[in-house]
């Protein structure tokens, strides 16, 4: 630690810190444009100038290393004049677009010009103009506003791993853009909008929509994938206008995937806002009471074993526990959350969670990816892997061909399950990298768990983790990477068929007479038998609603308070941002109301009582956060590790941008699919 004096305040900071970090440790605000805590230091803008004792001139604090005994002054006349001069220089070519700029009200340039700039300019020359660049359907550019801080260039190269942005020409002719005009090929491109300190990069779908002070901000959780990204929902009146990430270093840092950020225009399209009942082959509007009576009549005389339920991928834990209790009350053991047919061992929680934690990726020193495509399964987790890879000494092996480049160096070991056997017995060279690591990590994706031999693959991966030292008292390197936001919470609640009960496939093959779909659209609803009475409870007119005999309109994840459990088993709470449209209701309330009609009233009437029931069903719901595990040694998952099949590992996800009913209803995601996914899928075919 080094002692540094900042404006008379002595602080201790770690060796290797910069003068800017020392100033912040002393509680001093230092203006900056190019500096960002999660990016490399560029020193472009010079706005962070401070005076250092014995230095001949003001120094850029973002890149100036501290020394023991250093004396820094942040508010002298020299510093004030220097900052005014820098601001004057930055505004030479910046246009007066504030009244029409989407960054207005949350613009660093506005704030710092007011706080540190002068009241006049000495420059009267004409401002330069720069042609706008095309970066795809998500990011809008007004490059005349660019101050060339290069944050976007560094983000694309360092975090997103897609070095497609850069500077061309020099001096006054310097421009930021893609070297060849094309759409940015990153699932994290929306973060460019957040890190741009001016209005050069803004949201194309959100353009000219609202000002920040008009919006009501609500903390929530992104339910479009299983990462559990912390988000803030910005709404005006009944409409969600944008979603931004919240900082959480343990989960998403301050990044967010494009699908969760930009699919919100699907929240107001193809919505179900009233109950519907099918009569004479057509759906007709109905009252809630009529819909409940129609379901009760369909269930009358049907034994419990002929009733089934399928849970969708975006459900909150409250609605899932209510559905489980309803099915139990009706005498039905047929409930399944695995629309993709994945196989899990529920005997221990660490058999189906990301046990090292997302932040634990930075501690690992070797990685094996089995049947997963982190770039599409979870772009935020993929960025964390890249962050660790950039730190060096991090070999990455992949079993199964990913759909696209993973943005970091990796070795494809093959696509056959037999590769696992070769790693276990040490016959493959990559086994030495795993055994030589202090904290090896294995990530098992849904592509490995949706196979016929999934139990054997899971057991083999666990055996490999045990053999290479990934299961110890202080390190649990066995990780399952999920794609569905509701999956871990559903597994915690035991929403898989027990012995003798029917799975999704069994229910599809005519095994039930009444089938309840809770937001389930991804399993191929067209395969449901013609004689099955289908109740669809959800928020969009997607595949499940098209097959339904009764439709019960539910709420999306931004329209209800809910509990979600991410892929690492972290329990997080989302708050209600807006009300659902029309007559739509919160899902657990619908189930509670119907239970009264059929004479099996569920024992809770309000949200606290439902959450108490959750904690009773599984203690992990009793507290927020991530329940940590001890060592993973001892019991192994059920399955014969030697019974591996010969089918190559395939992809578990189709089109990244169209994975749920909200994104499929989104015109923005449809455009992204046409721009990014469809050419890739066609090439793969």
TrEMBL record:
Its EC number is 7.1.1.-. It catalyses: a quinone + NADH + 5 H(+)(in) = a quinol + NAD(+) + 4 H(+)(out). It comes from Rhizosaccharibacter radicis. NDH-1 shuttles electrons from NADH, via FMN and iron-sulfur (Fe-S) centers, to quinones in the respiratory chain. Couples the redox reaction to proton translocation (for every two electrons transferred, four hydrogen ions are translocated across the cytoplasmic membrane), and thus conserves the redox energy in a proton gradient. Binds 1 [2Fe-2S] cluster per subunit. InterPro entries: 2Fe-2S_ferredoxin-like_sf, 2Fe-2S_ferredoxin-type, Mopterin_OxRdtase, Mopterin_OxRdtase_4Fe-4S_dom, NADH_UbQ_OxRdtase_75kDa_su_CS, NADH_UbQ_OxRdtase_ferredoxin, NADH_UbQ_OxRdtase_Gsu, NADH_UbQ_OxRdtase_Gsu_4Fe4S-bd. This is NADH-quinone oxidoreductase. Belongs to the complex I 75 kDa subunit family. Its cofactor is [2Fe-2S] cluster; [4Fe-4S] cluster. It comes from the Bacteria. The lineage of its organism: Bacteria, Pseudomonadati, Pseudomonadota, Alphaproteobacteria, Acetobacterales. Residues 2-78 form the 2Fe-2S ferredoxin-type domain. Residues 78-117 form the 4Fe-4S His(Cys)3-ligated-type domain. Residues 215-271 form the 4Fe-4S Mo/W bis-MGD-type domain. Keywords: 2Fe-2S, 4Fe-4S, Iron, Iron-sulfur, Metal-binding, NAD, Quinone, Translocase.
């Amino acid at each position: 630690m080094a002692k540094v004096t900042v404006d008379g305040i002595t602080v201790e900071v770690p060796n290797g810190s910069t003068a800017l970090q020392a100033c912040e440790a002393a509680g001093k605000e230092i203006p900056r444009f190019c500096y960002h805590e999660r990016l490399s230091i560029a020193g472009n803008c010079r706005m962070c100038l401070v005076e250092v004792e014995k230095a001949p001139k003001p120094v850029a604090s973002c890149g100036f290393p501290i020394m023991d005994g250093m004396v820094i002054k942040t508010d002298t006349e020299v510093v004030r004049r220097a900052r005014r001069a820098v601001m004057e220089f930055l505004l030479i070519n910046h246009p007066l677009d504030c009244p029409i700029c989407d960054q207005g009200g949350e613009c660093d340039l506005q704030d710092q010009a007011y706080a540190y700039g002068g009241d006049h300019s000495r420059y009267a020359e004409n401002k330069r103009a720069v042609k706008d660049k095309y970066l795809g359907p998500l990011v809008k550019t007004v490059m005349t506003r660019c101050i060339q801080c290069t944050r976007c260039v560094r983000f694309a190269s360092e975090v997103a791993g897609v070095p497609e942005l850069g500077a061309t020409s020099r001096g006054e002719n310097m421009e930021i853009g893609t070297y060849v005009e094309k759409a940015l090929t990153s699932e994290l491109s929306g973060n460019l909008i957040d890190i741009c300190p001016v209005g050069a990069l803004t949201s194309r779908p959100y353009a000219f929509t609202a000002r920040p002070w008009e919006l009501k901000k609500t903390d929530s959780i992104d339910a479009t994938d299983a990462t559990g990204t912390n988000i803030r929902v910005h709404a005006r009146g009944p409409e969600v206008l944008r979603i931004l990430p919240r900082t959480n270093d343990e989960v998403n840092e301050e990044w967010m995937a494009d699908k969760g950020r930009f699919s919100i225009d699907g929240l107001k399209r193809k919505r179900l806002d009233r109950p519907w009942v099918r009569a004479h082959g057509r759906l007709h509007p109905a009252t809630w009471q009529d819909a409940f009576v129609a379901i009760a009549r369909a269930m009358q005389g049907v034994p419990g074993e002929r009733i089934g339920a399928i849970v969708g991928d975006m459900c909150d834990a409250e609605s899932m526990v209510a559905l489980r209790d309803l099915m139990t009350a009706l005498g039905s053991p047929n409930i399944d959350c695995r629309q993709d047919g994945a196989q899990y061992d529920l005997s221990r929680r660490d058999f189906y969670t990301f046990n090292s934690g997302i932040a634990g990726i930075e501690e690992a020193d070797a990685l094996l990816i089995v049947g997963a495509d982190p770039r599409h399964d979870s772009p935020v987790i993929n960025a964390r892997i890249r962050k660790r890879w950039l730190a060096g000494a991090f070999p990455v092996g992949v079993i199964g061909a990913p759909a696209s480049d993973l943005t970091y160096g990796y070795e494809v070991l093959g696509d056959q399950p037999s590769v696992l056997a070769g790693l276990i017995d040490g016959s493959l060279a990559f086994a030495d990298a795993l055994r030589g690591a202090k904290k090896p990590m294995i990530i098992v994706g849904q592509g490995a768990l949706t196979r016929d031999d999934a139990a054997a693959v899971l057991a083999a991966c666990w055996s490999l983790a045990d053999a290479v030292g990934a299961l110890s008292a202080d390190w649990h390197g066995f990780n399952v990477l999920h794609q569905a936001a509701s999956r871990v919470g559903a597994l915690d609640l035991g929403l898989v068929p027990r012995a003798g009960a029917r799975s999704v496939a069994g229910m599809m093959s005519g095994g039930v007479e009444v089938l309840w779909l809770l937001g389930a659209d991804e399993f191929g609803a067209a395969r449901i038998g013609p004689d099955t009475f289908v109740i669809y409870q959800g928020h969009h007119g997607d595949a499940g609603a098209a097959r339904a005999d009764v439709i019960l309109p539910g709420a999306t994840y931004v329209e209800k308070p809910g509990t979600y459990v991410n892929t690492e088993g972290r329990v997080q709470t989302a708050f209600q941002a807006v009300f659902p449209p029309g007559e739509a209701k919160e899902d657990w309330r619908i189930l509670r109301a119907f239970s009264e009609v059929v004479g099996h009233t569920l024992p809770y009437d309000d949200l606290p009582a439902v959450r108490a029931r959750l904690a009773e069903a599984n203690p992990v719901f009793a507290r927020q956060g991530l329940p940590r595990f001890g060592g993973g040694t001892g019991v192994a998952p059920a399955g014969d590790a030697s019974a591996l099949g010969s089918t190559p590992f395939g992809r578990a996800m189709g089109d990244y941008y169209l994975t749920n009913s909200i994104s499929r209803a989104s015109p923005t995601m449809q455009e992204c699919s046409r721009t990014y996914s469809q050419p890739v899928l066609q090439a793969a075919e």
